[in-house]
Design a protein that fits this description.
heterodimer; A: 8 helices; about 40% helix; B: alpha/beta; Rossmann fold; 4 domains; 6-stranded mixed beta sheet; 24 helices; about 45% helix; elongated
C-alpha cells in the first residue's frame, strides 16, 4: 500500500514539474508532507516556544553508504536498509534519491500540527525549497516567533535529512507570501540553537517579513 | 582491492590449527579492522572480541564463548552459542551468562568448565579469556588456588579434542587476551609446547593506509562534505593519494580506537577533505589554531633583517636557521623521510660561548609563534645524572614524582607549538640521548603515565660548545679554534669536533645521522659585530634612562671611543663578554655618579670621560645645570 502511494506521489511530482515549468525547473521534484505517510507513533510535540531548539537526528549518509547493516546500534535495520539503497544516489546529489528519502523519511511529519500545508521541492543537488501554509490561529498568537521558529525548524530538519548546502523556506497565507528565508549549512553549523532568538537569527539570515 | 590481513591474524590462522593454547598479547583493548567480508563487513572496525567471534564463527567453530572473571562465560554477539555451550558442558545460563569463578574447589569453576569444553567432541569450541592479565594479583605471589586454576587451563590445552565440522577438522581452542605477557605465570607459557604467543601491535603503515583508502574512507566525512568535495578528488586521484599518504604519516603510533575517534571527530567538525590532516592536530593537541599555518610569508621575508637587530655578526648561522624554517613552512621538511610525524626541523648550534645561540632560538620563537616564551629551554647540565631521563619524561608508576609527569613531556603537552632548546647538550647523560633519538626519529615520547606527546609541530634546537677545546694525545686540553681563524676554518674545525664527539667519544653515530646537515656553526664575535653589540647596548641604556627617569644621557665621541676600546679589547667571551664590560665600565660607574650627585630624575647628563683603568672604573660627567654654572663663571 505504501509503495503504491509512493509511486503515485512520484507521478504527481512529475506532473507538477510539467505543469509549472517556470516555477519548478525540469530537474526539480516536489514532495508534499501532508500526503506522505505519517509514522503511526509520533514523538510528543515539543512546546512551540522550543520548536526551533530541537531538530531531527542527522542522517549519516557516509556511514550508511559503506554498511548494509546499522553501524550506530540505534537505527532499525529495515530503515537502515532503505537508506542504504538510496545512499549512493544521495551522495551523488541525485534529486530523485532526495525525493525518495523525503517520501520515506517524511522529516516534517511531526510539524503537521503547526501548519496548514507543507511541501518541499528539490531544486538541485545543493538546494531544497520548502514552503508551508500558516495556521491563522498560531499566526495570530505571536506572528514573528511563529513564522521565524517554523522556518528555522523546517530548515534544520531538511539539513538533517539531506546533504544540501542551502534551504529556502517560505511561509504563505493564501496567495500572500509572509516570510522568505534562505539558510546555508555553514550558517547553521555555527549556531547554538538553544540560545538564539529565532526572529533575530532569521533576520540575520536575510529573512524578509512580508506581513 | 585485495584483502590486507594483519600479521597477528595470519599467525592466528596458522597456529590455531596446531596449538590448542593461544595467548594474544599487547594491543588487545584496541579495535581491529576486519580484513575480509564475512559475518563482519570487510574493513569494519570492531573490538577484538567481536573480531574473534566473526573469525572463529566463519571458520567453523560452533561454540565461541568469552570468559571474564567478573561475569563468567558469555557471548554478547551470539547468545545462542552460550546456550549451546552451557548444554554441552553441564552448566546453567543465568541472566545471559554462565557464572563461574576463576578459582575454587567446585566443578563449576571456570577452569573446570573450560577443561570439559576443550575435551568434548560434539562441537568445535573456542573459549576466549578476556582481561586475563587481571585474574590474579601478581604472578610472583600466587596462592595454591591460583596455581591450580592455571594448571587446569594447561590440562585443558593438553586434552584439547579435534572436532569434525562442515568446514573441516577443527581443534578446540583456548585463547587468552593479555596486555602484558608477564601478567601470567611464566611457567604457564614459557617452554610450553602447547602454547603460542602472538603479539598484536598498533596498526602499521599499511593498516592505516587501508583504513583511509578502503571502504571506510567515506565515513571520515560529513555527508555534505563528501558529496561536494569528492567529485574533485575523483577527477584528481593523485591529490587524494597524496592526502592519504600524509594522513598515514601523521598518525604513526596511533591505535585503531584513536583513528576511529579521529574519524568521528572529522565528521563532527565537518572537516573538508582537503583539511583532513588538520584533524590529527585537533585530536592530538585539542586545538585548531596551528601557528605554522598562520605564518605570514611577508614576516618571514624580513626575518633575517629582524634577527640581525638582535643577533650581530652571525650572517651564515642565521641564513642556515632560516633555511630550516622555510623548509618547514613550505612543507618540504621530511620529504626525504618516511615519517611526517618528525619535528618540523632540527638544528644543532655549535660555537663559542656568548655568540647568540640561545638568543637566536628565542628570536626564532618570537618570529614563529609571536612570543619568546614559546622557546622552551632545558639546561642539560641539570640532566647529567643516570636517572635524569625521569626528570624529562616523568617517573614510572610507584616512584616519587609519578603524578607530576615529566618536565619535557608536560611542557610539550601544554604547548605543542614551540621551539625546544636543549642547551649544552654535551652535558646530558647518555641515557637521555636515547630519548632524543626517539624524538628525532618518531617525533613522539611517552611519559611515565603512558601519555604520548608529539613533537611534530616543534623545532628542536641543540646548542653546544663542543669543539672549542679538544684533547691532545696526552689528554691535555688545548684551544681548538681561536679568534685569529677565519669563519670557514672555525666552521670546519667545530663540525669535525662535533662529529668526533658523537662518533668516537660517545660511539653514537646514529644521533649525528638524525641531525644530518643541520649543524650550524656560530662564528666568534668579530670587531665589527662587537661594535654593533656595544652600540646596541649603550643605546638601550640611554633609552631606558630617558624613558624611566627622564634622564637624558649623552656620551661624547671621545668618551665613547674610550669605552669602545676597553669593552672590545677581548672578544673571546662573545656578546656576553661585551655586556659584562658595559656593566662594569658604564652601568656601575654611571649609577654611582648619579647617586653621589643626587641626580634622581629630570636631568641632562653628559659623559665626558671613562676612566677604565681605575679600580673600580669611573666616569666623568656633568649635568646641564653644571654647564649653566660654568657659563656664568
Amino acid at each position: 500500500m505504501t509503495d503504491i502511494r509512493r509511486a503515485l506521489l512520484k507521478g504527481m511530482a512529475d506532473i507538477v514539474g510539467d505543469l509549472y515549468p517556470d516555477e519548478a525547473p525540469q530537474n526539480t521534484a516536489t514532495y508534499k508532507s501532508a500526503d506522505a505517510p505519517v509514522p503511526a507513533k509520533q514523538p510528543a510535540l515539543p512546546p512551540f516556544r522550543d520548536l526551533w531548539k530541537t531538530a531531527d537526528e542527522t542522517i549519516d549518509w557516509t556511514d550508511i553508504l559503506v554498511s548494509p547493516t546499522p553501524t550506530d546500534g540505534l537505527t532499525p535495520p529495515d530503515k537502515w536498509a532503505v537508506y542504504h539503497q538510496h545512499a549512493a544516489g544521495v551522495l551523488k546529489g541525485d534529486i530523485a534519491a532526495y525525493l525518495a528519502v523525503l517520501q520515506y523519511e517524511n522529516p516534517m511529519a511531526d510539524l503537521t500540527p503547526y501548519v496548514a500545508a507543507l511541501d518541499v521541492t528539490t531544486v538541485n543537488a545543493d538546494v531544497l525549497r520548502a514552503s508551508f501554509a500558516v495556521r491563522p490561529d498560531l499566526l495570530a498568537r505571536n506572528a514573528d516567533t511563529y513564522l521565524s521558529g517554523m522556518v528555522l525548524r523546517i530548515a534544520r530538519d531538511l539539513f538533517a535529512a539531506l546533504p544540501v548546502l542551502t534551504v529556502e523556506v517560505k511561509a504563505t497565507q493564501g496567495d500572500q507570501n509572509l516570510l522568505t528565508a534562505t539558510f546555508t549549512r555553514a550558517q547553521m553549523n555555527k549556531v547554538r540553537f538553544a540560545f538564539i532568538d529565532p526572529v533575530a537569527f532569521v533576520k540575520e539570515c536575510g529573512g524578509e517579513l512580508h506581513a | 582491492m585485495a584483502p590486507l590481513i594483519s600479521k597477528w591474524h595470519r599467525e592466528l590462522e596458522l597456529f590455531s590449527a596446531v596449538k590448542p593454547l593461544i595467548i594474544l598479547e599487547g594491543n588487545v583493548t584496541d579495535m581491529c579492522r576486519y580484513p575480509i567480508e564475512g559475518s563482519i563487513p570487510e574493513d569494519k572496525l570492531v573490538p577484538l572480541t567481536e573480531y574473534l567471534n566473526g573469525y572463529l564463527t566463519d571458520n567453523g567453530y560452533g561454540q565461541v564463548v568469552y570468559y571474564s572473571n567478573l561475569v563468567g562465560f558469555m557471548n554478547p554477539y551470539a547468545p545462542k552459542m552460550l546456550d549451546l555451550f552451557a548444554r554441552t558442558n553441564g552448566c546453567e545460563v543465568v541472566s545471559g551468562a554462565v557464572p563461574a569463578e576463576f578459582k575454587g574447589n567446585t566443578q563449576q569453576t571456570a577452569p573446570n568448565i573450560i577443561r570439559r569444553a576443550m575435551s568434548q567432541t560434539n562441537d568445535a569450541t573456542a573459549v576466549v579469556m578476556e582481561l586475563a592479565s587481571h585474574y590474579i594479583i601478581t604472578p610472583e605471589r600466587m596462592d595454591q588456588h591460583d596455581v591450580n586454576s592455571f594448571n587446569l587451563l594447561m590440562q585443558s590445552a593438553m586434552s584439547a579434542a579435534t572436532v569434525r565440522t562442515p568446514m573441516g577438522k577443527r581443534q578446540n581452542l583456548l585463547i587468552l587476551l593479555v596486555q602484558k605477557l608477564n601478567d601470567l605465570p611464566a611457567w604457564f607459557y614459557l617452554n610450553n609446547p602447547l602454547c603460542k604467543t602472538i603479539r598484536i601491535e598498533a596498526p602499521d603503515r599499511e593498516e592505516r593506509k587501508r583504513l583511509i583508502s578502503g571502504k571506510s574512507w567515506p565515513t571520515f566525512f560529513d555527508s555534505t562534505v563528501y558529496r561536494t568535495d569528492m567529485p574533485f578528488y575523483e577527477a584528481h586521484p593523485d591529490e587524494l593519494t597524496r592526502l592519504r599518504e600524509k594522513f598515514v604519516g601523521l598518525t604513526e603510533g596511533l591505535t585503531f580506537t584513536e583513528l576511529d575517534a579521529m574519524r568521528r571527530l572529522s565528521k563532527r567538525e565537518q572537516t573538508p577533505i582537503r583539511d583532513l590532516c588538520t584533524i590529527v592536530d585537533l585530536y592530538k593537541y585539542g586545538i585548531k589554531e596551528n601557528p605554522w599555518a598562520n605564518l605570514s610569508m611577508d614576516s618571514l621575508r624580513t626575518a633575517k633583517q629582524d634577527f640581525e637587530k638582535r643577533i650581530k655578526g652571525q650572517d651564515a648561522a642565521l641564513e642556515r636557521t632560516l633555511d630550516v624554517v622555510k623548509r618547514a613552512v613550505t612543507g618540504m621538511n621530511g620529504l626525504s623521510s618516511s615519517s611526517t610525524a618528525k619535528p618540523k626541523g632540527v638544528l644543532f648550534y655549535a660555537g663559542p660561548t656568548g655568540v647568540g645561540k640561545t638568543e637566536t632560538a628565542k628570536a626564532l620563537a618570537e618570529k614563529l609563534f609571536g612570543d619568546e616564551s614559546a622557546c622552551i629551554r632545558f639546561d642539560m647540565s641539570e640532566y647529567g645524572q643516570p636517572h635524569s631521563d625521569q626528570k624529562l619524561m616523568g617517573a614510572p608508576p610507584g616512584y616519587v614524582g609519578y603524578e607530576a609527569g615529566g618536565q619535557l613531556t608536560n611542557a610539550i603537552k601544554k604547548n605543542p607549538f614551540a621551539i625546544v632548546l636543549f642547551d649544552e647538550i654535551e652535558k646530558a647523560h647518555s641515557s637521555i640521548l636515547d630519548k632524543f633519538l626517539q624524538i628525532l626519529e618518531d617525533g613522539r615520547l611517552t611519559d611515565g603515565q603512558g601519555n604520548t606527546v608529539y613533537f611534530s609541530e616543534t623545532i628542536i634546537i641543540f646548542t653546544s660548545n663542543l669543539g672549542m677545546y679538544v684533547k691532545d694525545e696526552m689528554g691535555r686540553r688545548y684551544q681548538n679554534v681561536t679568534m685569529d681563524m677565519d669563519y670557514p676554518e672555525v666552521q670546519q674545525r667545530l663540525r669535525q669536533a662535533v662529529e668526533d664527539h658523537f662518533k668516537l667519544e660517545l660511539g653514537r653515530p646514529e644521533i649525528l645521522n638524525r641531525i644530518g646537515e643541520n649543524i650550524v656553526v656560530f662564528d666568534f664575535i668579530r670587531e665589527e659585530a662587537g661594535k654593533a653589540i656595544l652600540k646596541a647596548q649603550v643605546d638601550k641604556i640611554i633609552r631606558r634612562l630617558a624613558e624611566q627617569k627622564n634622564i637624558r644621557v649623552t656620551v661624547t665621541d671621545e668618551a665613547y671611543a674610550e669605552l669602545s676600546a676597553a669593552a672590545l679589547a677581548d672578544l673571546s667571551n662573545g656578546g656576553r663578554g661585551v655586556g659584562n664590560q658595559v656593566e662594569a665600565l658604564l652601568i656601575n660607574p654611571l649609577s654611582r655618579w648619579l647617586f653621589d650627585n643626587a641626580v634622581i630624575s629630570d636631568a641632562d647628563v653628559t659623559i665626558e670621560h671613562f676612566d677604565t683603568a681605575s679600580q673600580p672604573p669611573c666616569v666623568q660627567c656633568h649635568t646641564g645645570a653644571d654647564k649653566e654654572v660654568d657659563k656664568h663663571d
